[in-house]
Specification:
- There is one protein chain.
- The chain has 429 residues and is of the alpha+beta class.
- It has three domains: 18-151 and 241-379, no CATH class; 154-231, no CATH class; 381-417.
- 44% of the residues lie in helices and 8% in strands.
- The protein contains 15 helices and nine strands.
- It has helices at residues 29-32, 63-74, 96-109, 117-125, 170-183, 189-205, 208-226, 238-248, 254-271, 284-293, 320-335, 362-366, 369-375, 381-398, 402-417; strands spanning 130-131, 139-141, 154-157, 162-165, 251-252, 275-279, 310-314, 339-343, 348-353.
- A five-stranded mixed β-sheet has the order 2-6-7-9-8, with helices on both faces. A two-stranded antiparallel sheet has the order 1-5. A two-stranded antiparallel ribbon has the order 3-4.
- Helix 3 (96-109) crosses helix 13, helix 4 (117-125) crosses helix 7 and helix 5 runs antiparallel to helix 6.
- It is globular.
Length: 429
């Protein structure tokens, strides 16, 4: 999202890797761009993790099927007419409200948010989230979970923003501590780095309660990787770590999945195309690092995607009639207070689901406005107006010359011939 978590400056841009469509490169798609599902089969099939609704199978998708599905999404096409953005998918006059509404609802519902992949694994094992398989009849997961790389075998310390390596046992930690003790004897930056790492690890592993928690996280992650509903992942293999991450970030809460599936079904029924879904749940570490890599991602602590109640849909390749149809469906949902939504400038529709079918209390929303403004200073109404005035002033100064005046007159004459037409604008956040 723009204020929440945009993809405009992502690490792996959607249009940068056409070679991924080649059959010879399809098996490692996830390592380059696409969200193809993991390809390693488990030796044994584990019982499904308990969940409120039935889980999809974990059968790998044939490369040629995946390539055809991607090609269909990216097919160049057009349609008569213009893009008509309904007011329901535009920003509120006070732009802070868009995030504040979602944050207030998340607090009211008391959603757990995963700090890192270990906590996300635990949420999956508790059945709080359900999986959205990579390729459905009506949708495709398009570039989900590839913007940032996380280490599944590290704990994310929210307070310091640092990663703490996970170990299987106290003996493994002690072995690493001894190695770092030797490293820190080296002069210069190498020794300083080793000393800092050793001190960080000691602050966790010398505390029995913290240490046991980290051992439990290691066990949860590695157990799931060994048997993830029919597939297995070697976490020593970077490519498998990527596939494991993408699989984890393909989960969402049941209420949000229901909205997504209905929207995808209606779109597919109308146009014969799968709906391209670009984002589902995220970890706090993933979200924070998106902020560092992209000015478009939100820095608020309770970002919507952390809750598992938000998803993004790409309109990058959609013709005007397709966009208008999807926006009409989302607008109806918003009017019914089932979702919060926005058409963003990063080629995506952001949708957040209200699980109980109503918006949060206004007093709760107001309580988050300052936090949103702190993370996004230009979102405040008075600052947005001031920025608009400065931009208008700059344009006026630039257009003071004779040639500019002539061009302006020509534009005004052109507009006069189209008077009465609706002004369409998709305003960024």
């Amino acid at each position: 999202m723009a204020l929440t978590d945009r993809h405009a400056a992502r690490v792996f841009p959607q249009s940068a890797l056409p070679a991924c469509l080649l059959a010879g490169l399809l098996l490692p798609l996830l390592a380059c761009h696409r969200e193809a599902p993991p390809v390693k089969k488990a030796e044994t099939t584990a019982a499904p993790t308990p969940a409120p609704t039935p889980e999809p199978s974990a059968t790998p998708i044939p490369p040629e099927t995946w390539a055809a599905a991607i090609e269909k999404v990216e097919e160049r096409r057009g349609s008569p007419g213009r893009i008509e953005v309904p007011h329901e998918l535009e920003h509120y006059e006070d732009r802070r409200r868009f995030l504040a509404l979602q944050m207030a609802d998340s607090k009211e519902e008391g959603y757990d948010v995963p700090h890192d992949q270990a906590e996300l694994v635990e949420m999956i094992q508790r059945g709080e989230l359900v999986e959205v398989r990579a390729l459905g009849d009506d949708y495709i997961l398009y570039d989900v979970g590839t913007a940032i790389r996380e280490d599944p075998l590290s704990h994310y310390d929210v307070a310091s923003g640092k990663d703490v390596k996970l170990f299987a046992s106290l003996e493994d930690y002690q072995e690493e501590d001894a190695r770092l003790a030797e490293e820190e004897k080296r002069p210069g930056p190498a020794g300083v780095k080793a000393r800092a790492e050793r001190e960080l690890l000691a602050s966790f592993y010398n505390d029995p309660e913290k240490r046991d928690r980290l051992f439990a996280e290691y066990e949860a992650v590695t157990d799931l990787a060994r048997s993830f509903r029919g597939l297995t992942y070697d976490l020593d293999d970077p490519a498998d770590r990527t596939r494991f991450q993408v699989r984890l970030l393909s989960f969402i809460r049941p209420a949000a999945r229901d909205i997504l599936m209905k929207l995808a079904h209606d779109y597919h029924e109308k146009f014969g195309r799968r709906l391209p879904v670009t984002s589902l749940v995220r970890t706090q570490r993933y979200q924070r690092r998106m902020v560092h890599n992209s000015p478009n991602a939100t820095g608020v602590e309770l970002a919507p995607h952390l809750t598992g109640m938000a998803f993004d849909v790409s309109y990058k390749f959609m013709a005007p009639d397709e966009q208008n149809f999807v926006m009409e469906q989302i607008a109806r949902l918003k009017d019914a207070e089932r979702v919060e939504a926005l058409r963003e400038h990063n080629n995506s529709f952001h949708v957040y689901t209200y699980a109980d079918g109503h918006r949060p209390a206004e007093s709760d929303v107001t309580g988050f406005l300052d936090e949103v403004e702190a993370a996004h200073p230009q979102s405040a109404p008075h600052k947005a107006v001031a920025a608009g005035r400065r931009a208008t002033g700059s344009r006026s100064a630039a257009s003071s010359g004779p040639s500019s005046r002539k061009a302006g007159a020509a534009r005004r004459a052109h507009v006069a011939t189209r008077r009465g037409g609706r002004h369409l604008a998709s305003r960024s956040r």
